[in-house]
């Protein structure tokens, strides 16, 4: 398999962490979707990463779709429960973490791509409200538990940690560690795993 992506995308990082935890072999191909010579749309018509190229030529995109597929390839390190409420719970954690990222990425794009006089501060604050509400909910739902869902590592933990890592990378001024010490503990614990050490955004 080949994974098209960047070292800064939190969605690509989520897929790379899952690949590592599942001990799956793949080639990582760097792709800058903002470059004039990008070829990403040859694989993903939406022009986004991550994008997974399978050995038979099939293509898969969207991190949520990709990680769900990867979890079926081997029973090693099962990350998504098979059925029912537990499965839905893990996927809800992923959706919440991804939603925080979506809002934060929109803020970054507004601040970096638009001239200051064209930026819509009211719209930016609306996105910030989603970020802070999402972080508060993740912290509340985690409580004092060791993992987000159940008693072992799942996609929920990976999704949350990739979100916190990206916020630290792109918005270091947000003091989420002080506001949400339980999220900081989870993030620090997961950051010791090789899958996270090898995928630090840069």
Automatic annotation (TrEMBL):
Signal peptide: none annotated. Residues 83-202 form the GST C-terminal domain. This is Glutathione S-transferase N-terminal domain-containing protein. Residues 1-78 form the GST N-terminal domain. Gene3D superfamilies: 1.20.1050.10, Glutaredoxin (3.40.30.10). PANTHER family: MALEYLACETOACETATE ISOMERASE. It comes from the Bacteria. GO terms for molecular function: glutathione transferase activity; maleylacetoacetate isomerase activity. Pfam families: GST_C_2, GST_N_2.
């Amino acid at each position: 398999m080949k994974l098209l992506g960047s070292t800064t995308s939190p969605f690509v990082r989520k897929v790379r962490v899952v690949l590592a935890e599942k001990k799956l072999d793949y080639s990582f191909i760097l792709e800058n979707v903002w470059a004039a010579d990008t070829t990403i749309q040859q694989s993903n018509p939406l022009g986004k990463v991550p994008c997974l190229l399978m050995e038979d030529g099939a293509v898969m995109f969207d991190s949520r779709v990709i990680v769900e597929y990867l979890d079926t390839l081997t029973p090693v390190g099962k990350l998504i429960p098979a059925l029912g409420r537990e499965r839905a719970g893990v996927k809800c954690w992923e959706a919440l973490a991804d939603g925080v990222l979506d809002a934060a990425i929109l803020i970054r794009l507004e601040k970096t791509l638009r001239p200051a006089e064209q930026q819509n501060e009211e719209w930016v604050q609306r996105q910030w409200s989603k970020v802070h509400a999402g972080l508060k909910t993740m912290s509340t739902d985690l409580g004092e538990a060791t993992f987000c869902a159940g008693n072992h590592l799942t996609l929920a933990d990976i999704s949350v940690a990739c979100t916190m890592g990206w916020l630290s990378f792109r918005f270091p001024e947000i003091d989420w560690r002080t506001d949400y010490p339980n999220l900081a503990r989870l993030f620090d614990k997961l950051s010791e795993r090789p899958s996270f050490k090898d995928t630090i955004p840069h």
